Amino acid sequence: MPLKPTPLFDNLEQQGNPFKVSRFELPAWIPNTPLGALQDYEYAWKYLWSYNGSTATFNAYRREVERVIQWSWFVAQRTVASLKREDIEEYVRFCMSPPKEWVGLKQESRFLTKNGTRVVNERWRPFVVSISKEKFRLGHEVGYKDYSPSQASIQSTFSILSSFFGYLIQEELIESNPVALIRQKSKFVKKNQQQAPVRRISNLQWEYVIETIEQAANENPVEYERSLFIMNCLFAMYLRISELVADERSEPKMGDFRRDNDGNWWFHVTGKGNKDRIVTVSDEMLKSLKRYRKHLGLSSLPSLDDKTPLVSKISGKGPLTSTRQIRILVQSCFDRAYERMRRDGLEEDAGELKSATVHWLRHTGISEDVKIRPREHVRDDAGHASMQTTDRYIESDLRERHASGKKKKLKDLA
Q: Are residues 270 and 172 in the same domain?
């Protein structure tokens, strides 16, 4: 087994279309592969290419497919097409506790460009340690022992591998799906009767966050008007962070705010799974849009052909293309609100802002709306695939749940 596993597939733009390749060859940097490895490589590449419509999806599927190929070739020393049910079980156990040589302490690119040539990044590893935002802020020193896959990660492994082997069946390379044959996945994936609570910030925290960023925008509009608009989009329209930036899937623009024949405003968005939906634009959100457009020197409301990026770069032209920039921006807003709450003597109430993420704003907006709006309306605005997902938000705030039962009596019930 090599001490340093090697990457197999590059980024979408570098890897290219496998269906335009006349002759397949294993990359020269891949060591000692079993007989038949070229077939694994070819069909894995073709399978991954089917997800070229979304970089995020491609990357997720590449991660899982690449891992199982590496384990199959370098550990089991056999082809992926020959793996059986018991092999997959052994592989999942490997993923739950990989050797130190397979684990990285931070994210690294698979390949680097040197003198115009793509070369393997020797620091890259298939598994990467991740720690909570709170531990990171406290200066926790990351170590290999910190690696522990989440239940969601293990479930993703099963799901993507099952899809991959299903594809190999369709291509008539194998006869059965070894993942589907595992009857007791529960020994790997724990079932919890109590659903994990939806992570959100409290109403008090949100009030401080939005008031703080409004004050900052009033004092320094050049730096903070964009931040204020983004925070309102995330909360009021439940937008996912990926729905604010331009990528190969879509390029959000001002013209995506559209008024219907009844005079009602909607925001048209391409969301998760490349699904289009329209989101209700509330009166308050419309005011936020007008304020931001005034700051940009635009008309009060957009026309259908308004190509102005929804979120523009601060420096340079064009739309924002990095979700990382939005994460940094939102974290800055959380940090400013946290400090203000501390100054007001609310440090204990402010605590969750230390660990809150961008996605918590979407959760918070949905959690508040299910209290006052029909569930199916919230479901459609949020882009949930089923009502079951929306129902998770009905009792999402544990504070309210506890407050309602705190004074429950054991006697003198009359």
A: no
